[in-house]
Amino acid sequence: MASHPFVAMNTIEKSFNGVPVLKKVTLEVEKGEIHALLGENGAGKSTLMNILGGVHQPDNGQIFINGEEVKMADPHVSQAQGISFIHQELNMVGDLRVYENMFLGSEIRNKIGFLNVEEMCRQTREILAELGVTINPKEYVRNLATSYKQLIEISKALLHKSQLIIMDEPTTSLAEHEVSRLFVLMKNLKKSGVSIIYISHKLKEIQEVCDRYTVLRDGQLVKTDVMENENLEVITKLMVGKSISQERYVHGHEFGEVALEVEGLTSAGLFKDINFSVRQGQIVGFTGLAGDGRTELFESLFGYRKKYSGIVKVKGKPVKINHPRKALQAGMGYVPKDRKENAIIKDLSVIHNMSLSSMGNFERLGFIQGKKEQQKFQTYKEALNIKVHNPRITIDKLSGGNQQKVIIAKWLEAETDILIFDNPTQGIDVGAKQEIYQQILMLAEFGKAIIILSSEAPEVMRICHDINVMYHGEITARFTGEEASEEEIMHYATGAKREGEKIG
Amino acid sequence: ACGSSESGGSGSTDEEASGDEQLTIGISLPSATHGWMGALIDSAEKQAKALKESEGIDYVMTNAEDPNTQANDVDDLIAQEVDVIVMLPIESAALSPVGQKIKDAGIPLVIVDRELENDAATVVVKGDNEGIGVNAGKYFVEQLNGEGKIVEITGPPSSVTEQRGSGFKEAVASESGMEIIASQSGDFSTEKSLEVMQNILQANPEIDAVFTQDDGMALGVLQAIKEAGRTDIQFVTGAGGAKGVFEDIQNDGLMKATFLYSPTMVEDAVKIAGDIAKGEEPAEAMVVKEATQVTKENVDEYYDPESKF
Amino acid sequence: MKSRMSWLWSEYSVIIAFVIIYIGASAMNPRFLDMNNQLNILMQVSIIGIIALGMTVVMLSGGIDLSVGSVLALAGVVSVLALNASGSIWIGVLTALLVGSFAGFLNGLMVAKGRIASFIATLGMMAGARSIALYIAEGGSVSGEVSGFTAIANSDFWIFDFPVIIFFVMAVLIYVLMHKTRFGRYVYALGSNEKAAMLSAIRVDRIKIGVYTLIGTLVGIAAVIETSRLNSISSSSSGAQYELDAIAAVIIGGTRMTGGRGKIIGTIFGILILGILNNMMNLMNVSPHLQGFVKGLIIIIAVVFQKRE
Amino acid sequence: MKSRMSWLWSEYSVIIAFVIIYIGASAMNPRFLDMNNQLNILMQVSIIGIIALGMTVVMLSGGIDLSVGSVLALAGVVSVLALNASGSIWIGVLTALLVGSFAGFLNGLMVAKGRIASFIATLGMMAGARSIALYIAEGGSVSGEVSGFTAIANSDFWIFDFPVIIFFVMAVLIYVLMHKTRFGRYVYALGSNEKAAMLSAIRVDRIKIGVYTLIGTLVGIAAVIETSRLNSISSSSSGAQYELDAIAAVIIGGTRMTGGRGKIIGTIFGILILGILNNMMNLMNVSPHLQGFVKGLIIIIAVVFQKRE
Ligand SMILES: Nc1ncnc2c1ncn2[C@@H]1O[C@H](COP(=O)(O)OP(=O)(O)OP(=O)(O)O)[C@@H](O)[C@H]1O
Ligand SMILES: Nc1ncnc2c1ncn2[C@@H]1O[C@H](COP(=O)(O)OP(=O)(O)OP(=O)(O)O)[C@@H](O)[C@H]1O
Ligand SMILES: [Mg+2]
Ligand SMILES: [Mg+2]
C-alpha cells in the first residue's frame, strides 16, 4: 500500500529524570482500526500516548499524521489534529455539571456569545443515551460514582467527532454491561472510519474488540501483530515474560473463628440491613454494579462515614467505630478504591507512603528510624515485586500498578487481622494482578479475614470463598465461590432476581 | 440643643428622641494602630464616660482605618442625629468634604489634631505638628552649635509625618553645617525603630544626634544606641510626651528633650463638645496645644506617673 | 418540601445568616431600620462591594488578590494627577481604570506566566503599588481641582446614591459574565481542577490573566468612586485593609478558599453582612477596643452556619 | 554531576537565591559584612523567625495563620500583667506560652472541628486577640516592673544574643519534629491529601489542632522575647503585620501555599533573605516611600527563581 497510516510515531524516545521510559518505540495506527496497546504497569503506554496527545514532549523521534510531520506542542495542537484523549486518571472538573464537563473547552454559544445551555444539555443526553446511561446533565460531577465519571470522559471524547480516540484504560471502573455498550459504540465508530488506540489490562476485552495489538515491555517495542487468532497466553507471555494461569486460585482450607460480624447495618439512602460475617482465613467478596453502595458500606465500617446504625462485632466483641483510627485499633485495614484520591499521598515518598499507617513499627523513643523503614520496604519490594528505582522519590512518579502495591504494603505493615480491599486490582496488569491475588491468598492462609469489593464478577469468582451480591444497598444473594456463575451474579446484581430468604 | 435640626419626631420610634431630649456626642477617630492613637482613643472614651456620668450626655464612638471608612462612620453619626461631632480626620483633604456635610446637616463639629481645609469646623483643638519639627530643629541647631550629623526616624508615610519632617528640615536647613545623614521610617513602633536604628548605627560610624517623630520610637532608638554601646551620639529627642521618655529625661539619659503632643488633647475636645451640646457658645474657635519643649528643667511639670501613654 | 429547604440551606445559607443578622439588628436598635440608615449601609458597602465582586472571581479561579487596597490608592493618586493636569473628568476616570487594569494584568502575568503563588505575587504588588503611590504623592494626599468630579460619587438616582447604582450594575455584569459566558465557565473549571481544565484544551494562562485584569479594572472603578466621594485620595491610608474586608465578604458568601465553588450572590450578601455589622457597632456604641472582637466573632459564627463539605 | 546540580537547584533554590542576595549586599555596602551587622541581622530576624517556623508547619498542613501578630500582642500584654502581679519571671513566661498556645488551640478547634477555612478562622482571631489586648491595656502599652525580666532577650551567649540561640534551638526542634517524628509525617500527609490521610487511620483533627497549638506556643515564645527586649509591649502596634513577613518567609523558602510540600531549612533562608533586605535598605538609606517597592520586587524575583511544578 502506498498510502500512509493515519498516525505514525517513529523511534520515540523519552526519559524522566535521566531514567529512560521509552526506547525507540514505533507505533502505526491505520484509519478505522482499533489498536490495542499492551504492556505491564510502567511499560510506558501512557507516556507514549501523552506524547501523542501533546501532554509530554518526546526527547527524540517524530510523529506523522497522514504522512505529515506534526509537532504536538500542547493538548490544543493534538486536539486540532483530530485526536481525543481519554486519560488514565480521571480528569473531571468535580465542581462543574455533567454537561459543562462534557463541553468544557468547546462550548456551544448562541449568536451574542452567551452559552447555549439547552442545546448542550440536549446533546449530552443524546450521547449518554448511546452509552445506555441516564444522568441528569445538570447534576454536579462530584456527586457521581466513579463509573459515571468514566463514562462521561468517554462521551466527551466521542463528542469531538475526532479521527483518533486514545482510550487509556477506559473501563477500569465500569461494570460488565457498560463495557459491552462501549464496545458496540467502538465498533460503530470503527465502521465510520475513526481509529482507536485502546489500552487495557483486561485481555478478554482486548480480544473482543481490537484488530491489531502492540506490546511494550520496559519501554521497548516487543511485537506488533494482528489480533485475529492470536492466543491470549502468548500475548500475556509477551507482556510479562511468563505465562499466567486464569484458573480459580482459592483452595478450601480450614477457617478459624469469626473475625468480623455485622448485624443490621443501615445508613439512610446508602445501604440497609446488612448482615454478614467473615472468619479468619476466609476471603469474602462483594460485587454488584456501580452505585450499589458497597463502597459506602465499607467506608462506614471503617469509620470514615459516621452516620450508620447496627452492630459490628470484631472477634465477638461489639465495637463502636467512628474514625479510621478506631478501625485500625479494632484490627481492620482498608485499601480504598480510586487510589489517586483516596490512597496515595503524592508528596510523600514511596517508603513514607508504605509506613504511614503503622508508624509505631518504626519508632524508637518517639523518633522514626529511617533505616528500619527502608529495610522493611525492601522486603515488600521483593515480596510484592514493586518496580521502583529509588524508593525515596514521591509515589506519584510510579505507575498505577506499582502505586497500588505500595498501598497494599502499607496495610500489610499495619498487621491487621481483617483486611478490606476495594477494587484492589484497578488498572493493574495481569502479571501484577496475579501477584496481588497470591498475596491475598497467602494472607488468608495466615489466618487473616479478607474482604474484597470488586465490580468484576470474574475477579471475585477467582479468589473468594464466599461471594455477596449487592443491589441498591442490599445484599441480594450469597454464593460460595464454586457454585457461582457470572450469569447468576449478573441476575442478582441488576436486580432481576433476589433471594430474600437465604440472606435473612 | 440641636436647634437647627428640623426632623424632631419624624416617625421614628426612638424613645430617647420622643422623651426629654437626650444629648449625644458623636466621636469619629482613626483606629488604634500605634501607641499615641491608642492612648488618644482611650482618653476620648474616658472623658466621654465622665461626661455621661456627670452631665448625662451620651456618646457614640467610631474608629476607621482609612478615610473612606471614616466618611462612612460620619454618615452613621449624622443619621443618628447626634448633637455634636468630634472628629480626628485621618486625612485633612479627604475629610474636608465630610466636614462640610456635617456643617450642612446643622451639626456643630469639633476637630481634633488635624485641621480641615475648609471652615466647616466650629472649634479646632489641635497640636502643632509643624511646630514639633520646627522647635526640634531649633533645639538641634542650638545644642549642636549649627554643626552636626543628624539621623531622623520618621513615622509611617502620612501627613503627620510629612508636617513634622518638613518643619524639622526647614529649621535645620538654616545652618549649612547641619546634615541629615539618614532618614528612615520607624512606623511609630518601638520594635521597628529599634531594628531600624541598629542598622543605621551600622551604616553611620559618626552620628551627633537623633530626631524621632514620636516618643514610642525614641524608646526603641535609645535601646539600639545602648546595645551598640555608642558614645558619639549626644542626644535623642522625641515627640508626644510619653511617660517612659519623661523618666529618661529625669534620669539624665540620652533623651534630652521631647515636644508635647499629648493624646489628652482629645479630652479638651470632648469637653468642648459637651458644652456645645448643652447649647453653650464655645469660648474660642481655635485651641492650639503648643508643641512645648520639655527638657530637664520643666519635665516635672508634665510628668504624670499614672499616664497610660 | 424538606429537600427544598435543605437545598436552599446548602446553596444559600449566607442569605439565611443575613436574614438572622438583619432581624437581630432591627431588634437591637430601632434606628437601624430607618430608611436613611439602610441607604447609608448600601452606600458604605458599595466600594468594597465592587472590589469583592472581583475578589470572588479571583478566588473562584483558585487565587487571591492582596493588592486591591494599594492598587486602589495608586489608581486614585494617578488619576487625580491626570485629572488636574488635563482638566477633563473623562481622562481622570480613564486613567484610574487603566492603572487598575494594568496592575491587575501584571498580577495575572506573574501568576500565569511566572508561576508565582498568587498570595506572594499580589503581596509583592501590594507593597509595590503602595510604594509608588507614596512616592508620587510624597506620602500625603492629593485633591481634585476640577469641579464636577465629585459629582460622580455624590449624585443620586431616585433614592439611590450613584455608587450604589454602579455596584448594582457591576454585580449584574459580573453575574452574567460568570454564568452565561465561557469565560466564567472556565474560571470555575480552572479553580476546581486546573489540570483537567488544561487537558480540555482551555488556555488556562489567558483565563488567569483575564481574572486578575478584571479585578484590577474593578479596583479602578472603586478608586474613581472613592476619590470622587472625598475629592481626594491619601497615598498612605486609602484602601488600607480593603483586601481583608473583601476576602472576608467572599468567604462569608460561601466561596471556597481553594476555588471552583461559590457564587456572586453569596458575596453580595457577605458584603451586606459586613456592612450591617459595622453600622450596628456604630449605632450600638460598642467600645472601640472591643469592636474587632465583636466583628471577628460574628464573621466566624456566620461562616460556621454554612454548609460543611 | 549535572543531575546533582539540578537536584540541588530544585530542592534548595532558596539557598542559591540567598547566596546571590548575600553577595550582592556585600558588594553594595562594605559595612554589610561587618561582624556586628551580621549578628544584628540574626537578632532582628529571630522573633519573626520563630513565628515563621510555626507558620511553615501550619502551611505544610494546608492552612494559614493570620493571627500571629495579634496573638503576640495579647500574649505579651497578659504576660507583663502576670509578671508584675506575681513578681515572678517564670510566671510571666509561662503566661505568655499559655496565652499563645491557648489562642492557637482555639484556632485549631475552629479549623478542625468547626470546619472553618483557616484564613477566616485566624482572621477572626486576629481581630479578636488584638481587640482584647487593646481592651486590657486600654490602648496603651504595658511595661515590666520586675528586674531581671529584660535579661531574657538581652543576654548573650558567646557572640550570639540569646534570642538568636532560642531561634536556633527552636529551628532544630521543629526540624526534628517534622522529619523524625510521626507528627511531622502526618502534617505532610494531611497537607498533601487530607482524605487519604484520614483513610490511612490518621486522626486528622488532632493533627490540625496540634499544628495551630504549636504555632501559638511559638508565638508565645516570640512574645516573651519581644516583651523582654524592650521591657514593654504595645497593645496597638506590637506584632502588626508580622503575619505577612512570616508568610512571605515561608513562601520564599519554597513551601507550597496549598501544603504538603516544603522545608524548614527553606524557611530559615527565607527569613534571612527578608532580614538582609530590611538591613540593606536601612544601610543604603532607601527612601521609606520606595522601600515597599524594592522589597516586593526582590521577594518576587526570589520566588521566580524557584523551581516550578
Ligand atoms: N511525570 C513523570 N515523571 C517521572 N517518571 C514518570 C512520569 N510519568 C511516568 N513516569 C515513569 O515512566 C514509566 C512509564 O509510566 P507509564 O505511566 O507510561 O506506564 P504505563 O505503561 O501506562 O503503566 P500502567 O499500566 O500502570 O498505567 C514508569 O516507570 C513511571 O514511573
Ligand atoms: N459524596 C457523595 N454525595 C452524594 N452522593 C454520592 C456521593 N458519593 C457517592 N454518592 C452516590 O452513592 C451511590 C454509590 O456510589 P459508589 O461510588 O459508592 O458506588 P460503588 O458501589 O462503589 O460502585 P463502583 O465501585 O463500581 O463505582 C451512587 O449513586 C453515587 O452517586
Ligand atoms: Mg498508564
Ligand atoms: Mg494503570
Automatic annotation (TrEMBL), chain A:
Question: Which part of the chain is the ABC transporter domain?
Answer: 7-243, 250-497
GO MF annotation, one? ATP binding
Instruction: Indicate yes or no for the key word Repeat.
Output: yes
Supply the alphabetized keyword list. Answer: ATP-binding, Nucleotide-binding, Repeat, Transport
Instruction: Answer yes or no on keyword Nucleotide-binding.
Output: yes
Any signal peptide, and if so, which residues? none
PANTHER family assigned to the protein according to its UniProt record, in alphabetical order: CARBOHYDRATE TRANSPORT ATP-BINDING PROTEIN MG119-RELATED (PTHR43790), GALACTOFURANOSE TRANSPORTER ATP-BINDING PROTEIN YTFR (PTHR43790:SF9)
Q: What is this protein called?
A: Sugar ABC transporter ATP-binding protein
UniProtKB/TrEMBL annotation, chains C, D:
Record key words, sorted: Cell inner membrane, Cell membrane, Membrane, Transmembrane, Transmembrane helix, Transport
What stretches pass through the bilayer?
Answer: 12-29, 41-59, 66-83, 89-109, 116-137, 157-178, 264-281, 287-305
Membrane topology, as annotated: Multi-pass membrane protein
Q: Which InterPro entries match?
A: ABC_transp_permease
Q: Where in the cell is it found?
A: Cell membrane
UniProt xrefs under PANTHER family: ABC TRANSPORTER PERMEASE PROTEIN YPHD-RELATED, ABC TRANSPORTER PERMEASE PROTEIN YPHD-RELATED-RELATED
Q: Protein name, please?
A: ABC transporter permease
